[in-house]
């Protein structure tokens, strides 16, 4: 099992934003999700917040690949696949959120039966737990910060 940063294809830009900014955007997204009028909006917004959390981890840990390896990997790669590769300890979270991607797409398309109120509320709670866990452990270790320093920085 690799111990250093995992590489990602050059064509996949993990993020132009620093991890702290992405975490702040994720937290704001969760507030928006909690206030959303419909279960579909709540679900889609919470899922997007979780994607921003994943992007923050990728911004800290993933490194682009160049040369022949990048040429072989010309297809876009899911953020959840990359997350599991660069942070194996988050593999279960990655699988959980990847499994909800189709529901999110259906909710974004406005299908009224895409998600129930309970599914949306559950996803908001899970996305918040994911955010807190990443803030306090995963990124704290990567950046050499304590949980309270990260929470203060994320606003």
Write the layout of secondary structure elements.
Layout: E1 7-9, H1 19-35, H2 39-61, E2 63-65, H3 68-72, H4 79-86, H5 91-99, H6 101-108, H7 117-143, H8 147-154
Parallel strand pairs: 1-2
Please give a structural write-up.
The protein is built from eight helices and two strands, in the order βααβαααααα. The chain has helices spanning 19-35, 39-61, 68-72, 79-86, 91-99, 101-108, 117-143, 147-154, and strands at residues 7-9, 63-65. Helix 1 (19-35) runs antiparallel to helix 2 (39-61). The chain is globular. The protein has one domain. The protein is 68% helix and 4% strand. The chain has a two-stranded parallel ribbon with strand order 1-2.
**Mean pLDDT reading:** 81
Contiguous uncertain segments of 5+ residues:
1-16, 150-155
Helix-and-strand structural type: mainly alpha
Number of helices: 8
> In this structure, how is the largest beta sheet organized?
2 strands, parallel
* SSE topology string: EHHEHHHHHH
* Rg over alpha carbons: 16 Å
Strand order of the largest sheet: 1-2
Number of strands: 2
How would the global form be characterised?
Answer: globular
Number of domains: 1
What amount of the residues lies in strands?
A: under 5%
Oligomer: single chain
What is the terminal separation in angstroms?
A: 35 Å
How much helix is in the residues? 55-70%
Concise synopsis of the structure shown:
Helices cover 68% and strands 4% of the residues.
Task: Provide the descriptors you would attach to this structure in a database record.
two-stranded parallel ribbon; disordered N terminus; 4% strand; 155 residues; 8 helices; mainly alpha; globular; disordered C terminus
